[in-house]
Design brief:
The protein is of the alpha/beta class. The protein is built from 13 helices and twelve strands.
Length: about 350
Amino acid sequence: MNLYNFTIEELEDYFVQHGDKKFRAQQIFEWLYRKRIENISEMTNLKKELLEELEQNFTLNTITLVDREEDIDVKKYLFRLPDGEHVEAVLMKHIYGESICVSSQVGCNMGCAFCESGRRKKVRNLEAHEMVEQILLLEKLEKIRISHVVVMGIGEPFDNYEQLIKFISIINYAKGLAIGSRHITVSTCGIVPKIKEFSHLPYQVNLAISLHAPTDEIRKQIMPISKVYPMEELIQALKEYISLTNRRVTFEYILLNEINDSTECAHLLSDLLRGMNCYVNLIPYNETSHIDLKRSTKKSIHNFYDTLKKRGINVTIRREYGGAISAACGQLRSKKEER
């Protein structure tokens, strides 16, 4: 078992069930997330018998860095997991702090036409500790404190819901990584039942929706999930989410040349979202050698932005990162595994 895979409640239960005191869990969280030990033997305030038990039953760090690429204000990392599989994380420097984009699965089964991650099918879900360790390892390597977390790397987070929620609990806990709920964002392509479940969580975590089209007709061409959960069903679930949480939803919208970037698409999108507590994040597409889709022209991007703005939709154009490196999710992993 990996100690980073335990929430504070799970660790308390473990010690109670093994005839010890709940406060042991607090002690161990202190060693893991404040003192950042690398070996269980470093927990010097635990009695010898308990240390021996922990060393026999638990492990700590299991992921390793195997590759890295850098560009201005962004670094991309490739990690090897205990079973030899690979995932990526991206570190971005902002004026408000350091932000990490973590992966939640090895590969992805959602099959979005524009996505390098989906080109390589899902192998397995990541466990919570494998997501936590992405943060810990980068903080150690870069000697920084990560203030913001985005679960938007390889994989569909809501397809790994149980481990995702454990991960959020661990990094949000005050004696864990103490990353505030409002500094955590989860992105989903639209698994409606999990959006509804997510609505009832006690965390004020941000929700982002990979929408990328204003209609089912267009969305089905590039996002198979729309065949399972149509646009009407998705939007209704999001309206319920907003009503229950009073949280604003972000709609991610990758602009693809002559597919979803016309003025008509902008009109349809503004009609779809009007009245919702949301904003649209327009994303210039990072092209890859394996996918034929092309990014929209600068003129089309700014026309789309202006149209939404004039029609009363809160909208931004995402700052571009990693233009000189393997920027798209899954590219670095693909390069490694195709060598």
